[in-house]
Amino acid sequence: MFVPEEIIETIKMIEYQNLDIRTTTLGINLKDCADKDLDLLKENIYDKITSLGGNLVETANKVSQKYGIPIVNKRISVTPIGLIMGSTVKGLSDEEAVDACVEVGITLDKIAKEVGVDFIGGYSALVQKRATYEEKMLIRSIPKLMTKTDKVCASVNVATTKAGINMYAVKKMGEIVKETSEITKDAIGCAKIVVFCNAPEDNPFMAGAFHGPGEGDAVINAGVSGPGVVRAVVEQLKGKDIGTVSDEIKKTAFKITRMGELVGKEVANELGVNFGIVDLSLAPTPAIGDSIANILEAVGLERCGTHGTTAALAMLNDAVKKGGAMASSNVGGLSGAFIPVSEDAGMIEAVEVGALRLEKLEAMTCVCSVGLDMIAVPGKTPASTLSAIMADEMAIGMINKKTTAVRIIPVPGKDVGDYVEYGGLLGTAPIMPVSEFSSEELIERGGRIPAPIQSLTN
Q: Which family does it belong to?
């Protein structure tokens, strides 16, 4: 039950502080679509997704209008394609298997455009320990896929706390990202590729969303975003102690989460599917004031990236989770604070003045979601360095038993001081410096970094 005061407060949040439902994501199980015949596989996928998701956009718009709450994105996530390609590629040559994977990806892109969603996720492989033949071929196909599709997002889980880090997969993903950067305009394909440690099965956010093997047949997951609301609250607390700031953020997260769950459940009910989770992640946009960096600066930092940034971010992340957990029993996904550089106006400014560097971002990922996100680096950066950056981030996730990820973009022809413009939610990325010292020998070793002792929890 919402009292009139809460409704008025929510209206103000929407009107003045950029509060919105960032996404309603329909997860769809495709395991029953598997077939040894490629044409039948594609037909099964088409029929399944369009039958369950054909009304997603219309329904989300209807619910948005009913409550007066913007739903910015409507998305679909599917069972990791690497799990359903086995019988289809059996007996094919490597080249034929890669092409078969790409054809499935093109089918997903066609469906996404037909039903009107913003993105479709799940062109994915779960290879934290080892990779099957079909998963190897799917990973190999990612660069080619990115030249032929617009709305398909790819993700590869290369590490978990239980399994350790698959360094063969880390090495390969550095090469895949490098190749993709060289064959897509301004390396835009890399913005749709995520490398994960401990990937959640119910994440509604792109580019890393997929419908996990442990999920049901169809489910709605909602992602709420309110950096502008949190910033406005913190700015009213000048001179207050940090515990008070934390308490007020918790209260705000509680309100935001209730709204997200209400809308998510309504969309699920209208579609006749289960409601899954509400993701508590504070996801920024390039809009002024809708920035995680600005929240941290309102807490008391001259610039995001200076000393104290990691501590302030830890407090913010914890407060958001505590407030959300009190509001709902259906919390999941990533649920933290995103720090994507290109998508956050405050982060961009911090990079420009030299307050924020890649090393500090890596430290910040120890306490937040989701990792090194939308980081643009010089196009000359070698694949081995990209892999090493991924390995560092995977280690943080593995040891800390949390989700971490890397979405890094080596932009051809660009160097430190340059920018690449993507527009929309992807924003503008300043090219950040990386170490020029080589990590190639480490990456060439391959193998698997063993799981830490924390994995023995049974």
A: Belongs to the UPF0210 family.
Name the one residue in this structure whose structure tokens are 């993105």.
119
| CATH T-level fold of 1-451 | Anaerobic Ribonucleotide-triphosphate Reductase Large Chain (3.20.70)
Section 259-271 average pLDDT: 91
Residues near 6 by beta carbon (within 8 Å), at least 6 away in sequence: 255
Residue 228, pLDDT score: 81
Q: Is there a contact between 280 and 257 (Cβ–Cβ < 8 Å)?
A: yes
Question: Residue 65: helix, strand or coil by DSSP?
Answer: helix
> DSSP character for 226?
-
- Residues 161-204: tens digit of each pLDDT: 999 999 999 999 999 999 999 999 999 999 999 999 999 999 99
- The structure tokens listed for 423 are 């527009």
List the domain boundaries for the chain. Answer: 1-451
For residue 376, the SS3 value is strand
Q: Which of residues 5 and 91 earns the better pLDDT score?
A: 91
What would the two tokens of residue 275 be? 């409601």
| Half-sphere exposure for 101 (CA within 13 Å, toward CB) | 34
Q: Considering the chain, what is the average pLDDT of its residues? A: 90
In 209-352, which ranges are continuous DSSP H helix?
227-235, 242-271, 292-299, 309-327, 345-352
Q: Is the peptide bond before 388 cis (omega within 30 degrees of 0)?
A: no
